[in-house]
Design brief:
The protein has no helices and nine strands. It is an all-beta fold and 124 residues long. The protein has a single domain (2-123), classed as Immunoglobulin-like (Sandwich). The strands form two sheets. A six-stranded mixed sheet has the order 1-2-3-9-8-5, with no helix packed on it. The protein has a three-stranded antiparallel sheet with strand order 4-7-6, with no helix packed on it.
Length: 124
């Protein structure tokens, strides 16, 4: 089963370009940095979209202290948007598959640690 996330317009994020980004994400995305867990997220980026935003606001107990890219995208960019959001923007006209790995680190009441998130992105 796929879950569709219609994401906020870019203009709402304080950027100059308005667009609607839709990504298809398989499975529910949850992680807990205090467990030093790892998660692979499969993403289908539809043809009309240049970017996808990923929000983790639903993980109320997680506060992101810092993050780092382990494997940079070769065909676009991946950036952290303050609070619990990340954006992948593909290079104009690029179609294919790409894997991005980054760590999200946090200090929680239950402990501190880092989750390793792997994004397998297929751009149509």
């Amino acid at each position: 089963m796929f879950h569709r996330y219609i994401l906020a317009s870019v203009a709402l994020l304080g950027l100059s370009q308005a667009a609607l980004a839709e990504c298809v994400v398989k499975d529910k995305v949850e992680f807990n940095p205090s467990k030093n867990d790892a998660l692979t997220i499969k993403v289908l980026m539809e043809k009309q979209n240049r970017f996808c935003d990923f929000s983790y606001d639903h993980l109320e107990a997680v506060t992101i202290d810092h993050w780092e890219i382990v494997t940079k995208p070769l065909n676009g960019s991946f950036v952290f948007i303050p609070k619990k959001k990340f954006r992948y923007e593909r290079a104009k006209g690029w179609v294919g598959q790409e894997t991005i790995v980054f760590k999200v680190c946090s200090k929680l009441a239950t402990g501190e640690g880092c989750s390793t998130l792997t994004y397998d992105i297929k751009a149509e």
